[in-house]
């Protein structure tokens, strides 16, 4: 709802600017290619800590798998911890049953103070589990008891789990490699059966736990996303999964996300053919949830390899993962994505870089960024304003042409085009440069919707730059700044038309209403950009007054130029013939008669 309302407001603003400039001139006085693998973040010498905490009750056992080794005793959960996360891996099928992100605080109602974000929703099973499809049968590996290697963890921080059932011919080996400074997890192993190679299923979800102050924000953002080699990136809300859906492969990755966090199964690097086969999405009897299963065909020897990402939608970590995972949020409507997606990448990179390079808070970064955008757009805005001044100077001649060819529309159009060509004037030049900031504004709206760098960041009286201003100070200041710019523009006009007066009151009020519940960081950026444009507005106001003074002094300043152009076109005026001393012949003949 917020997105539709925001985009509608932008369209209305663009329509007002374009239509007003055209009808009421100033008065006279998809498919992305997989990226190369990004360089992995540098890993410190201290590896993650592996520990075996207290046991947990076993999961339910599937009746169809009675012949396989099932958990008959307690199941262990192995805890894997680094400075970024604390993951829990169950010996029941090697499922991931806990995922705490230690650098992010949970703001959910009832969560203990300073408790970390937990991605697993209690009571809905593991966050990541595996199935094996072979011979027309699907085996849920999380219902089987796996053994853990009793040895010490290898230097590569590898956790090995295995299952052997000689009676059934099933043998499964599952390995995890955790990296201390990234949320990527390497997964590889093998699954051997008597019926030959099968298909490994990687089931995500069925949902992500709510960790925000406003649960509706997370619920609106809950979606599964696929990156298809043929169709590009596509996102589907979990609410829309009402029947089984098939996502055709090959796929680079399959993900489930909410507003700020993400779990994903990624195809391994290397041979492009080694990609996920597809995804099967089924509804479940829970709200805002769906069963999303990525499929990975096993190799000839039953071997497989993939990567998991369990972490925040943080720009540097997503880009380090490669395979266009940073585009997991396909911003806006599909028609706008070719424009918004590159802009979103650049804006996110620029904001994060300024924060890291300058060592200042994101609030000050947004203020500086707003000023820089205004400085970059300064020449375009100046050109737009001067185009309006040129329009003002040409108004008398345009009115003459309109009056002269009122009954001949075709000739009127030709004469107007001739006038534009002679004067080098573009009637759209006054509004097109003013539309350039709108793609940036729309991009920033989507960036603030999902950029975790702003989550929980305080600035002055604002408790969270990603949330609305609790005191509504910034939306009001934004409206006042827009009113100031409109007032300066109208004050420089000799006689403001009614449309300008309407915009003076309508546009600021509309902006206050639209921005009232938007992210305070977006309000801060737009207010800073407006205030940075005041000096340019004052400069152009002085230029407009000079033009108006010249028009009043010369009687529009165009009459003489018009006469000179008409004279140049028609040639010299007819003159009486002269000879000798330059006197007219008739005068000379009259003089001869008098002398005679």
Please give a quick description of this structure.
By secondary structure, the protein is α+β, with helices and mostly antiparallel strands. 38% of the residues lie in helices and 22% in strands.
**Total of domains:** 2
Second rung of CATH, namely the architecture of the largest domain: Distorted Sandwich
Low-confidence stretches: 14-47, 52-64, 556-560, 572-584, 586-596
Question: In one word, what is the shape?
Answer: elongated
Radius of gyration: 35 Å
Give the tally of β-strands. 21
Please write out the topology.
Blueprint: H1 2-23, E1 49-51, E2 77-81, E3 85-90, E4 96-105, E5 116-118, E6 128-134, E7 137-140, E8 147-148, E9 158-165, E10 170-178, E11 184-192, E12 199-204, H2 215-221, E13 223-228, E14 232-237, E15 245-257, E16 261-266, E17 276-283, E18 290-297, E19 303-312, H3 315-321, H4 337-358, H5 362-404, H6 409-423, H7 432-435, H8 437-450, H9 473-491, H10 498-515, H11 520-532, H12 534-554, H13 559-570, E20 578-579, E21 583-584, H14 585-595
Helix pairs in contact: 1-8, 1-10, 4-5, 4-8, 5-6, 5-11, 5-12, 9-10, 9-11, 9-12
């Amino acid at each position: 709802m917020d997105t539709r309302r925001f985009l509608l407001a932008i369209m209305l603003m663009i329509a007002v600017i374009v239509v007003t400039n055209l009808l009421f001139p100033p008065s006279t006085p998809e498919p992305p290619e997989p990226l190369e693998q990004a360089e992995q973040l540098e890993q410190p010498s201290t590896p993650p800590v592996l520990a075996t905490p207290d046991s947990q009750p076993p999961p339910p056992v599937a009746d169809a798998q009675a012949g396989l080794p099932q958990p008959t005793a307690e199941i262990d959960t192995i805890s894997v911890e680094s400075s970024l996360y604390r993951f829990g891996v169950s010996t029941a099928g090697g499922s991931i049953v806990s995922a705490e992100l230690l650098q992010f605080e949970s703001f959910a109602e009832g969560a203990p103070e300073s408790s970390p974000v937990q991605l697993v929703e209690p009571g809905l099973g593991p966050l990541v589990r595996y199935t094996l499809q072979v011979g027309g049968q699907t085996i849920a590996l999380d219902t089987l008891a796996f053994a853990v290697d009793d040895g010490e963890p290898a230097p590569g921080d590898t956790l090995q789990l295995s299952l052997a059932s000689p009676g059934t011919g099933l043998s499964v080996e599952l390995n995890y490699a955790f990296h201390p400074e990234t949320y990527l997890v390497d997964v590889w192993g093998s699954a051997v059966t008597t019926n030959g190679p099968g298909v490994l299923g990687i089931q995500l979800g069925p949902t992500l736990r709510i960790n925000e102050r406003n649960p509706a924000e997370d619920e609106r953002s809950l979606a599964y996303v696929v990156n298809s080699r043929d169709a590009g990136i596509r996102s589907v809300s979990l609410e829309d999964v009402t029947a089984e859906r098939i996502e055709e492969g090959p796929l680079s990755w399959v993900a489930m996300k909410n507003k700020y966090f993400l779990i994903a199964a990624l195809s391994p690097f290397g041979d492009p053919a080694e990609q996920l086969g597809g995804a099967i999405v089924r509804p479940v009897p829970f709200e805002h949830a769906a069963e999303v299963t990525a499929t990975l065909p096993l190799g000839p020897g039953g071997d497989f390899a993939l990567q998991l990402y369990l972490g925040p939608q943080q720009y540097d970590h997503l880009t380090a993962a490669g395979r266009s995972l940073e585009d997991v949020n396909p911003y806006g409507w599909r028609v706008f994505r070719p424009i918004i997606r590159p802009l979103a990448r650049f804006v996110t990179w620029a904001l994060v870089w300024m924060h890291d390079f300058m060592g200042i808070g994101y609030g000050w970064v947004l203020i500086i960024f707003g000023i820089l955008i205004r400085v970059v757009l300064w020449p375009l805005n100046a050109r737009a304003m001067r185009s309006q001044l040129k329009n003002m100077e040409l108004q008398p001649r345009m009115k003459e042409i309109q009056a002269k060819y009122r009954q001949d529309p075709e000739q009127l159009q030709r004469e107007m085009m001739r006038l534009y060509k002679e004067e080098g004037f573009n009637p759209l030049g006054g509004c097109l440069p003013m539309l350039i900031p709108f793609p940036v504004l729309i991009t920033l709206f989507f960036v603030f919707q999902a950029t975790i760098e702003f989550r929980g960041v305080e600035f002055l009286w604002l408790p969270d730059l990603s949330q609305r201003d609790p005191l509504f100070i910034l939306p009001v200041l934004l409206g006042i700044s827009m009113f100031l710019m409109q007032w300066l523009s109208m004050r420089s006009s000799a006689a403001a038309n009614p449309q300008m007066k309407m915009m003076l009151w309508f546009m600021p009020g509309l902006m206050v209403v639209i921005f009232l519940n938007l992210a305070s960081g977006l309000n801060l950026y737009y207010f800073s950009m407006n205030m940075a444009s005041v000096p340019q507005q004052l400069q152009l106001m002085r230029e407009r007054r000079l033009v108006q003074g010249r028009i009043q002094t010369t009687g529009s300043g165009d009459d003489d130029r018009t006469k000179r152009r008409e004279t140049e076109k028609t040639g010299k005026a007819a003159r009486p013939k002269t000879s000798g001393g330059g006197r007219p012949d008739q005068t000379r003949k009259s003089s001869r008669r008098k002398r005679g």
